[in-house]
Amino acid sequence: MIYVYDMKKRSMQEPTFLILTALAAGPQHGYGIITDAERISGGVTRLQTGTLYMALDRLSSARLVEPDREEIADGRLRRYYRLTDEGATLLGAETERRHASAAVAAQRLRARLAGGTA
Amino acid sequence: MSAGGTGQAAGQGGDMPARDPAGTAALERRYLRLLRCYPPSHRAFHREEMLGVLLATARPGQRTPGLGQTVNLAACGLAIRVRRIPGWLAAEAGQDALAVVSLIAPAVVFILLALGWAVNAAAGARVLPRVPVWTPLLPVPVLLFSGESVVVMIAWLAVVVLGLTGRQRTAAKIAFISLTLALLALLLVLVVLIQQVHSFYFNTFPGELFQFLPFGDVPVVLASLAACSLALSPGPRRGLAIVGWRRACLMIAGLSAGFGFPAIVQLVNPAAPIWDLAFRLLGVLAIAVAVAVTCVRGPVGRRVAGLVAAGLLPGLAVAIPLRDVPAVFPVPVLVSLLAAVLVWPVAIISWRGRAERRRRLAERDLDFTVVYAEVYAEFQAFCARRRLPASSTRQLERAWDAWQAGRFRRGEISQWPFYGDNPFRPR
Predict the structure, then answer these.
(1) Per-residue pLDDT reduced to its tens digit, B210-222
(2) Between chains, do A54 and B76 touch, taking CB under 8 Å as contact?
(3) What ipTM score was computed for the predicted complex, to two decimals?
(4) Given A28, B184, B358, B403, which residue has the most CB atoms within 10 angstroms?
(5) Contact A31 B12 (CB under 8 A)
(6) Phi and psi dihedrals of A13, rounded to 5?
(7) Which member of B1, B2, B49 has the closest CB to residue A78?
């Protein structure tokens, strides 16, 4: 669990955050994660296939996500992934951290607009 | 979100645009070729689903992967390979490869030092033609030209002999001292070269001092490999037992010829343009050929080749074009320093992996009759039926995975076993 420990200390990378957020809704396969992550980021971030599977490989090793089930669609293997409890905990911590940072930023911007100093 | 995400995903197959079958087949072939950038174990598990996603995200009528997609796949495949290097070295074959490197690298370093000394001695003979060079007593003018090389050469000969006679720790200590001095010398060289490049001098820095210290012209990347493999591997005797005398000599000769290519050419023809870019790239090619011909055979050989190929990096650095820089020396020197230093953390991580494996093999077996009482009988019957060894924790971990894989195939469990809970796997 070195990775989890490490991730708790550092801020999470954007692709990781998007993947975990996409899987928080329920099990999804690769293509589903890509489209959902794009939607979550408001069309700003489109995950490349290589990036997605590198992240999934890393997250699986850290037991933050795990394969859920497999099915064959159009003659192709489709593997669904789900968020583990550890992954959900980490995502919750990261969400709180981002929320706190955003709150500070919003507060300072309000102060700036009001003519104060940040 | 759950229903939306899954529902959208489930409908993905139907959203795929109608494609030209020949075009899709060509695209699939090209993607499969790109997926070779990934390690075999990753391909075995993810190839089919990655291919499905790649084809699903392709544009209608697309026949070749886009540039961005190509770069992304290649970079991610390489990144995963790099990330797995410590595990790759911690495995049995990796440890065997380190043992072979601990046998051949010190010998190659010694031969390269001897070649360097011979070149210096020949240069000395040309400058002072009346002094006999090849006498047993090594006359003073020759020593002036190559004295420190002789000291370092003797040190590395001692490393080779001590390693072969089983005094691995002493050999590692001598190699490490020599390496540290060589790295220090290289650092000073780097500072002096940067000063020259930028026409900038420190008033208090004694730049000429390093020329008189016994550092020698040690090939630092190979020396670093030699020192860390001696310190963190089963040792040269184990390496010799793996490859045998004949293949060890072949590897040493081939690598010495490859890495010592410039020195050999200089000995034959002192006027050879060894500082030309084309010549140096030829030297890199010689190393690559030597590594490929002498090392790559079997899983241990491939790992040896992978390790020794780190010595190519400084040579490749000469190809980096630097405009407005009068000398490109600092780049290879810097790359040499970095490569020599980076070898260590990788070796240390692999050593920790090896230590962990040994600890797990030696630890007391879990009493799984108590831990997993409800499935004990079934698991035990499986091990007996398949004749699986199941006495150590490591063996039990594998047996459990095999049992769960069978249950997964039969649809008795929904979780892929290698990612699922295994009571014998350390968390």
Answers:
(1) 444 444 566 888 8
(2) yes
(3) 0.82
(4) A28
(5) yes
(6) -75, 155
(7) B49
